Amino acid sequence: MATIVAPLQHSPVEDAEVIRKACEGWGTNEKALISVLAHRYPHQRLEIRKAYQDRYHEDLIRCLESELRGDFERALYRWILDPADRDAVLANVALKNGKVDYRVIIEVSCTRTPEEFLAVKRAYMARYKHSLEEDVACHTTGDLRKLLVALVGVYRYDGDEINAKLAASEAEILHHAIKENEFNHEEIVRIVSTRSKTQLLATINRYKDTHDISITKTLAGNRENVLVDSLRAAIRCLTDKGKYFEKVLRNALNKSGTDEDDLTRVIVTRAEKDLRQIKDLYYKRNSVPVEQAVAKETHGHYEEFLLALLGN
Amino acid sequence: MATIVAPLQHSPVEDAEVIRKACEGWGTNEKALISVLAHRYPHQRLEIRKAYQDRYHEDLIRCLESELRGDFERALYRWILDPADRDAVLANVALKNGKVDYRVIIEVSCTRTPEEFLAVKRAYMARYKHSLEEDVACHTTGDLRKLLVALVGVYRYDGDEINAKLAASEAEILHHAIKENEFNHEEIVRIVSTRSKTQLLATINRYKDTHDISITKTLAGNRENVLVDSLRAAIRCLTDKGKYFEKVLRNALNKSGTDEDDLTRVIVTRAEKDLRQIKDLYYKRNSVPVEQAVAKETHGHYEEFLLALLGN
């Protein structure tokens, strides 16, 4: 369930006016921006952008870019975008920032539904005039490339059918390859990148039943290996994304210095999806409400904005 | 341009009645079937199927299956299907018939537009409860698998932008890998499987300008190698599909014994697309109208049906 609190009815024109006023003159009224934008669903934000464009002949996003600085700006900018477009931007930034942030590529390709991810690929092409597959292949090499290109390439089957015999045989294929430290074995990439999420879950459950240890725990022993770390992240994203996001939040908040990129990304992308469940998982695991941890580690308008998205 | 001749207006109910009558009693009136079905556009055939179902509470395809035998049946059955669904069936048959017919997988993944191919992938999942990627990965191995999975996986960018610098550098990457006989070089797979058709065409043009020989001719020297043959087919499908289809037709008709699978596939899948251009290319290359070659190599209702689709 989502965490954002938004009215069923709103006036896009009035919202646009509030935003215009908040940006006018010297300084910006960030509180006013948050009071409107943090409390609108994606389609409502789209309507506001349209109303703003019609009324002031200026793109709302460009206007905000010139007004805001730092973590708050980045968070608000991500938030305003349509979810598919936002994921396209996240993936592009992950590829272009010198060092490829493979975790973001895995997160975007494996936690979205096949239809959502398809929309991301369309948005990526519309924005960058390249396919996402093309850019991932271009900015990575070796085994990591093989895995990432396969993960972004697949249009995964979304049905609920489970083939138990297949789960058993593929659990053994995985076990054997991992036991031999053949993490780049093409069968691992095939199974993780092409099977439906339901089928893959059946396979890793079977793995656990047979070998008394989960496949992600087995892989955790080799976490400094980028390929193993990626495989592990992909399996976690595909089979238990709630737990995966809780962990990203926990790591981001516990880091000395806080990882604002990860923190913003999880809250912004999940606020209108399943942030409520992620919050529950966080509380269960850390015995502290995530709002409290966020309030402790962030400050100012950035803090206010994240807390608004968290449902405060 | 398409070759089929169909009326703008038709009555789906009357068409269904003609078909019913043609199938009733002892024997089948194949001529009547051809006179209706060979002269209807995809959406019209869909309306006929619906009208037939409503009126006779029976699926038209099942009814025809019980009436028809051999090449004519297979051709008519392929023809009746919606184009995306038909491609899904073609791909599935190519994968499941013991030996994988990689040429069909390449043809379907590389000659359709990105949107058309996406529809094929959706149709495949709806029909077989697996993704096409999954089944291709499952039924192939080694280098061929790498190439085919990449080709079916990609959602290719469809824009017209050309990056000339990139074309030059990637032409050199291709040239170097081919010169060293490294046909399984991951850069070849990356370039062929991820670049837009327009960009790839610029790259192979550049290759030809620099090296005075086309890349497909260079590859032709190693045609008995399945991977090289596949790469060559993919490049031809992606950059000049008309010429590719002409060649498939020519080979199918010139073979001793005629390759009915290839012949049917090209005529049925292109009749409502670009069969007119393919016919022109065929005439230019062979100095014989393709209708004449088809009439010589086939007979009976199968011949009549193919000729009808060819626009006779």
Estimate what percentage of residues of chain A fall within beta strands.
Answer: under 5%
The average pLDDT of chain A is 93
Radius of gyration of chain A: 21 Å
Give the N-to-C terminal Cα separation of chain A.
15 Å
Looking at how many chains there are and whether they match, the oligomeric state comes to: homodimer
Annotation field: number of helices of chain A: 20
Tally the structural domains of chain A.
4
Family (chains A, B): Belongs to the annexin family.
Keywords (chains A, B): Annexin, Calcium, Calcium/phospholipid-binding, Metal-binding, Repeat
InterPro entries (chains A, B): Annexin (IPR001464), Annexin_repeat (IPR018502), Annexin_repeat_CS (IPR018252), Annexin_sf (IPR037104), AnnexinD_plant (IPR009118)
Protein name (chains A, B): Annexin
Question: What would you say this structure looks like, in words?
Answer:
Chains A, B: Keywords: Annexin, Calcium, Calcium/phospholipid-binding, Metal-binding, Repeat. Chains A, B: Ca(2+) 3 binds at residues 295, 298, 303. Chains A, B: This is Annexin. Chains A, B: Ca(2+) 1 binds at residues 25, 27, 67. The first copy, chain A, is mostly helical and 312 residues long. Chain A folds into 4 domains: 12-68, Annexin (Annexin V, domain 1), CATH 1.10.220.10; 83-153, Annexin (Annexin V, domain 1); 164-239, Annexin (Annexin V, domain 1), CATH 1.10.220; 251-309, Annexin V, domain 1. The first copy, chain A, has helices spanning 12-23, 30-37, 42-56, 60-67, 70-80, 83-96, 102-111, 114-128, 132-139, 142-153, 164-179, 186-194, 197-211, 215-220, 226-239, 241-254, 260-270, 275-286, 290-297, 300-309. In chain A, helix 6 runs antiparallel to helix 7 (102-111). The two termini of chain A are 15 Å apart. The model of chain A has no long low-confidence stretch (mean pLDDT 93). Chain A binds chain B through residues 118, 121-122, 125, 129-134, 137-138, 145-146, 149-150, 153-159, 161, 186, 190, 193-196, and chain B through 118, 121-122, 125, 129-134, 137-138, 145-146, 149-150, 153-159, 161, 186, 190, 193-196.
